């Protein structure tokens, strides 16, 4: 989807600072709802490249996207492609669904036996999402819609009637950064996910903590810049709520077009990152540990018959047996991905720390994405950070995690074992 900036065009609006500090959660929600319900008329009004993805998603997703009604697509403001493959029959929840573009795509991916729930707090967006449900179900060949759209706050899912353990996969597209209560949001996601479920989502992050001026500015908040978390703070938050080993699937830089916004954010660099957070209580350890386990991909995920990418450091070729750490083994054996993998071995004999190789941290992945520009190998959706980036989890972000020159230039570092 192509996006353009209006900031340099004649007659474009000048930014005005918010009338008061937006520290109150209700005020932030009201500001964001107004920005997406009234101020923005289409994705071309955005002041950043956040809604642009550099690499097309899977073929099946592309085909579904082409069929989504134009009214829905034109008012879509996401920053990535959070479309998990192999989700037929699954229950999907989309946080901050907006006009429902991603819900409509997932409705096709899960099939008539699956279900998709979209949640948003903006009436204007929900009206568009609901308007095309029946026609979309008919287009997919279903007897009835497998979608529903609820009004609610992403931090209070219980208020919308979403019960504990009722969802297999939670997706979200550039929304969590808009939340004034991010920890509560993640805790609610953890609650509604079934054991073995996953949060598979794209969002905006920065390589440093955002300046106070940006965090209090209405337009910066609406564009996602003011509310974006420093990526290491986000990793820490994930671990606090129970997502013990966050994985990065893809990352790409976000360009800020507007000069005034650039002044507000200082030297901060922003990225669209697709994260994978698995709910595996008691199975994920703080570090990668060696138990002598192996994993073999069966080649059964639609659209990924030859190879399946778990994250930017794990691409499994069909039929190839690969050594994996205990955490990766758990993600493949005990999550919703289990039907597609054969994992051998258990944790009865610990063999020490699993050597994950250099560069195993999120900041390294972001550095590679930035230096590689539009290139990079591996990953899935957006700019792959393949062999050079880290997958987030065990590294504290010190200088030892800096990307190697080979990875920075071409997006592919020297071969190393999976994990």
Provide a short characterization of the protein structure.
This protein has helices at 25-39, 59-67, 70-74, 101-110, 123-131, 133-140, 182-192, 212-215, 218-222, 231-241, 259-265, 326-333, 362-372, 405-410, and strands at 91-95, 115-120, 147-151, 167-173, 193-206, 229-230, 247-254, 270-278, 293-297, 307-311, 314-317, 321-324, 341-344.
What is the strand and helix layout of this fold?
Elements: H1 25-39, H2 59-67, H3 70-74, E1 91-95, H4 101-110, E2 115-120, H5 123-131, H6 133-140, E3 147-151, E4 167-173, H7 182-192, E5 193-206, H8 212-215, H9 218-222, E6 229-230, H10 231-241, E7 247-254, H11 259-265, E8 270-278, E9 293-297, E10 307-311, E11 314-317, E12 321-324, H12 326-333, E13 341-344, H13 362-372, H14 405-410
Parallel strand pairs: 1-2, 1-4, 2-3, 4-5, 5-6
Antiparallel strand pairs: 5-8, 7-8, 9-12, 9-13, 10-11
Helix pairs in contact: 2-4
Range of strand content: 15-25%
Please identify the structural class as seen in this structure. Answer: alpha/beta
Q: Helical segment tally?
A: 14
How many β-strand stretches?
A: 13
Q: What is the general shape? A: globular
What does the largest sheet look like?
8 strands, mixed
CATH architecture grouping of the domain at 28-278: 3-Layer(aba) Sandwich
Radius of gyration, taken over Cα atoms and rounded to an integer in Å? 20 Å
Q: CATH H-level name of the domain at 28-278... which superfamily? A: Vaccinia Virus protein VP39
Can you give the helix content as a percent range?
A: 25-40%
Order of helices and strands: HHHEHEHHEEHEHHEHEHEEEEEHEHH
Distance between the termini: 33 Å
Give the CATH class of the domain at 28-278.
Alpha Beta
Question: What is the averaged pLDDT score?
Answer: 80
Family: Belongs to the methyltransferase superfamily. Arsenite methyltransferase family.
Enzyme class: transferase
Region (Disordered): 1-22
Biased composition (Polar residues): 1-11
